[in-house]
Amino acid sequence: MDDSFTLETLLLHADADDDAEPGIAPPIHASVPFSAATAEEFAELSAEPRHERFYRRYGNPTQARLERLIAEAEGAEAALATASGMGAVSTTLLTLLSAGDHVVAQHSMYGGTLGFLRDVAPRLGIEVTFVDQADTPAFARALRPNTRLVMLETPSNPLLRVTDLRAVAELARDRGILTMADNTVATPVNQRPLECGVDLVMHSVTKSLSGHSDVLAGIVAGSRELIERIWQTHILVGAVVSPYDAWLALRGLRTLVMRVERQNAGALALARFLQAHPGVAAVNHPGLPEHPQHGLAVRQMRGFGGLLSFEPHGGREAAERLLSALRLVRRSPSLGGYRTLAVRPAAMWALELSDEELTEAGVPPALIRVAVGLENPDDLVADFERALAAAGAA
Ligand SMILES: *Cc1c(COP(=O)(O)O)cnc(C)c1O
After folding, report:
1. Phi and psi for 86 in degrees, rounded to 5?
2. Is it the case that residue 257 has pLDDT exceeding 80?
């Protein structure tokens, strides 16, 4: 669509040109097989890659609308929707990598992505080197002649560290290596990795893009050629998004810009409040001038996102008391929804690690991660103020 339109307008109109139906809201196409009127048409349906009206594992008109909208939002030629964010990660990695290949990835990435790289990739003969994302030259040092892919995620979770997308994309491109960025936390409202030279951008659509904590879906976007290659693997892997989820995600996307702007404002207000509170030892949010990479975040991002983390004084017990004392905020692991959710990431680690081991792994035991929702920022700050007092964190 005409790229002079702003993102909020694109998200309302970019899927309208394939409107076969007069309804303003799009239909849900539930049928698995589609029929052809003639032998010639059937031959075309079955032979053309990514046909929307052949068999649902190959594609579907509701899914195609979702793909078109997110491709527009990310400035990509094409996109492929999947059953989950992990569906996008695993299908893409299985497409791009073979035995004998090498991947460079960040230490700090989504747990599922790390799990694939640590547990599945080695079994397929794929080697992985993990580097500190804040150390750009470390990416260059880790590259090998057989490196095929550099995996990025920024800001990362739960410490909100920032990766220099332009610098890493450039050093990979110079050597003919592909880059892929997980843009789930930032969203295309705040950051567009493809504009920074990254080749592929992926999302857990489950989070901010759908935005209502009721959809499981993923997407990967990039050049038409790369996305078609990923699709060839996708129809064999079968991590296909349900058209009902695709439809709900489309509905959520219409209000993405307003929701993310509200989350940006809420997270910044809460981060500033916590930064000034005597009961808080540390706050991590890229929008704070105190963040060690604030300058890079300002250059790379238009807003800083709805995610932050902080450490109250008093260790893990004080952190758990604080979580229990919050009234508006539920103890829950997701992000990007309409309600504010908080969790102590160390509590999600299956192993019982010591405080020292957790801190070394980048998950201090008292750290609380907050995924800010759409509440009025004043109500949210007041809830944290009261809960900090109740937890005796000061
Ligand atoms: C949730 C999440 C994923 C995985 O997405 P699912 O939809 O749960 O499979 C990947 N990356 C990030 C940053 C996430 O937050």
Report:
1. -65, -30
2. yes
